[in-house]
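hey so i finally got around to running the thing on that chain from the lab meeting. sorry it took forever, my laptop kept dying and i had to restart like 3 times. anyway pasting the input first so we r on the same page abt which one it is
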Amino acid sequence: MVTLVDEAGQAIGYEDKATVHHAATPLHLAFSSYVFDDRGRVLLTQRAFSKRTWPGVWTNSCCGHPLPGETLESAVRRRLSDELGLVPTAMDLMLPAFRYRAEMPDGIVENELCPVFRVVCEGEPVANPAEVAAYEWVEWRDVAVRPELSPWCLLQLSELSTLGPLPAEWPIADPAALPAAAR
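ok and heres what got predicted. didnt touch it at all, straight out
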């Protein structure tokens, strides 16, 4: 289930994730995360080729949808474990009100209110093949020059770049700036 939200970020209901993504996808709550290792590299992932939305596309480390009643932080932890076998040692909110809409060539739309997190994890990922086809650790300065990234990742990179050149020094966002459905 995903949480449907109105233009003000208020929860207005729930819909089955399997049926919510189509040509008229309603605005719903999601999250994105960028995982960094102890060397400051960021983890990029290639979405599994069996995914309904953006199969095989390279993107940020992990994205997903919180379950009804689940905090965003819990959702990030759950999806990192499920998709990559990773456990965060640190997690910070970076972009509390990020929102995007993107349409695939086949007409399927993503329409998400999608707060963005910086996460630190230790160890190597163990990719779940149903979620992740491949992964790569990349120097942060080299991420923005990759044109094959997902539409939401490119938009997030543009906003994250305004926080400064060093991800470890980005200012942590105020959780009060999260949409109401995410608080």
